[in-house]
Recover the amino acids of this structure.
């Protein structure tokens, strides 16, 4: 061996450089590798750690004891936790349905105005939602609280004598969640509605379909992909939400997000919190899969 | 879709829907000028709460922390994410599908799960929670969004301009700085702006990765809101909302310029 280490490393660098110059797939890999590495370290590795911890158990002092078991998952079957789970699913599902009902006409309207106005209206929908979501929650607290704007308005109009108790109830949580997630539904709905060709509607009309029937048979089915994308975008964050119940829900509004947060920060039972996180993750993945399957299926039907 | 005019009912509905979207924020702003401390009824106009805000050390520290984190995460995530976007748009390489699906992870994973997993990771790795851990986490969730936005903008990029530059004798590096980067710059700026707002706005991930002394503005607002409904929170919210409007407005102007 006659090459010095220094020369060897220089040769190595030269070899890498010439490889990079000639091989496009090496170039691509070099460009993507920072992202790949970063996400593997700061996203995948942490998730793997949570998976592992969910099969371990909590030590006496809130530490983690290394003995593999399914105890945390068994504990999740407790009626108390099942109730939290079903309440979370109910709240997220209701939020999804209400945002579809409220958002659909709005998306439909935006898709029908002249093209120049569309981007302006979309921008107008997005602007308030670029403000911090705790600020938006706070705005609703001001409106809904017992001595708040809504009660003052209703009382001064003579509609109510005693204030409505809305804040710190599940209703308040629902109101804030719908407001929070509405744009996530409107945008994908708009995208799919905008794609529908006028020709398709005219064809339906030429074939004698009344507007309402044309809507049900042509527009509505064609907008289902947007509805599905919107539902995923609303349902997943709604399932994991814990800030809205924290600030606006009463003691009874505990979502699975709150459960997880409490296990990690107050109860200091990381293994159980990890198991609950896995349950939430699997649920959201299942919903995503089912929904996207359905979307594919729906498209097949239409072709 | 167009031509057929929307019906009157639909137009009225949309006006009401926009009122619903904007009313809470407008009310919030109006009540920031309320002289009544309990902020229950309108008493009179005052700028007192804005003055109070600028003397609030905790708020000022939170603003400083938030900006530091947002700037660092934006710069790092934009550079790394843009490289990934270039790679995915123009090259085929081993691990292509893995890289592409990694980018969708933050979209399909609930934020709270990402938050606790980062907390677990930092604690197990023995990294002290603080500004560093928040910034590292923000970079992680910003990279995918930057990569997806920049990639979308790269779609119509004409490779022949680069080839022309090379034919005229420019090497790869000169071509990148003088031709490629200026062309994709609008996309990169859009990605950077998204990263900046995401970082500025984040509560959940920050909540789990923050340590003592690294309170950011969303964390600060949360504890203020939890404590009491005072006009000072309204004043802070108003300034924040106006700042976001200004950034968005500038973004729109920039966009209009390039088209």
């Amino acid at each position: 061996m006659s090459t010095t280490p220094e020369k060897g490393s220089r040769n190595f660098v030269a070899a890498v450089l010439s490889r990079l110059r000639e091989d496009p797939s090496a170039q691509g890999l070099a460009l993507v590798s920072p992202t790949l590495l970063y996400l593997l370290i700061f996203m995948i590795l942490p998730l793997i750690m949570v998976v592992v911890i969910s099969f371990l158990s909590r030590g006496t002092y809130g530490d983690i004891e290394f003995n593999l078991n399914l105890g945390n998952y068994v504990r999740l079957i407790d009626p108390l936790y099942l109730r939290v789970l079903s309440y979370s699913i109910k709240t997220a599902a209701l939020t999804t349905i209400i945002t579809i009902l409220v958002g659909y006409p709005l998306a439909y309207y935006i898709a029908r105005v002249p093209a120049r106005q569309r981007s302006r209206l979309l921008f107008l929908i997005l602007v308030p939602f670029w403000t911090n979501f705790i600020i938006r929650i706070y705005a609703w607290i001001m409106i809904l609280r017992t001595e708040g704007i809504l009660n003052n308005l209703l009382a001064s109009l003579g509609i109510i004598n005693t204030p409505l108790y809305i804040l710190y109830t599940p209703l308040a949580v629902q109101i804030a969640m719908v407001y929070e997630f509405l744009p996530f539904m409107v945008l994908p709905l708009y995208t799919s509605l905008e794609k529908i060709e006028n020709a398709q509607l005219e064809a339906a009309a030429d074939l004698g379909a009344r507007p309402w029937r044309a809507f049900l048979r042509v527009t509505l089915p064609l907008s289902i992909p947007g509805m599905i994308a919107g539902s995923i975008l609303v349902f997943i964050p709604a399932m994991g939400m814990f800030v809205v119940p924290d600030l606006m829900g009463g003691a009874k509004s505990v979502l699975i997000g709150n459960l997880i947060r409490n296990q990690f920060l107050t109860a200091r039972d990381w293994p159980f919190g990890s198991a609950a996180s896995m349950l939430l993750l699997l649920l959201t993945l299942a919903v995503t899969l089912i929904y996207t399957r359905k979307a594919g299926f729906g498209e097949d039907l239409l072709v | 879709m167009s031509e057929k005019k929307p019906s009157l009912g639909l137009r009225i509905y949309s006006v009401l829907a926009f009122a619903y979207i904007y009313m809470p924020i407008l009310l919030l702003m109006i009540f920031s000028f309320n002289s009544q401390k309990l902020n229950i009824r309108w008493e009179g106009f005052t700028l007192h709460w804005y003055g109070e805000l600028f003397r609030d050390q905790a708020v000022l520290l939170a603003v400083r922390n938030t900006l530091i984190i947002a700037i660092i995460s934006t710069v790092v995530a934009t550079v790394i994410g843009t490289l990934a976007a270039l790679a995915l748009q123009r090259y085929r390489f081993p691990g292509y599908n893995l890289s592409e699906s990694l980018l969708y992870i933050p979209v399909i994973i609930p934020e709270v799960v990402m938050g606790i997993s980062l907390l677990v990771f930092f604690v197990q790795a023995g990294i002290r929670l603080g500004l560093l851990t928040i910034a590292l986490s923000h970079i992680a969730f910003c990279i995918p969004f930057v990569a997806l936005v920049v990639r979308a903008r790269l779609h119509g990029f004409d490779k022949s301009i680069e080839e022309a530059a090379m034919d005229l004798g420019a090497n790869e590096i000169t071509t990148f700085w003088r031709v490629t980067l200026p062309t994709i710059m609008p996309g990169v700026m859009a990605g950077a702006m998204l990263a900046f707002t995401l970082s500025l706005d984040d509560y959940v991930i920050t909540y789990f990765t923050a340590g003592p002394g690294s309170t950011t503005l969303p964390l600060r607002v949360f504890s203020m809101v939890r404590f009491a409904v005072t006009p000072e929170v309204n004043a802070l919210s108003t300034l924040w909302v106006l700042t976001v409007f200004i950034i968005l407005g500038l973004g729109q102007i920039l966009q209009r310029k390039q088209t």
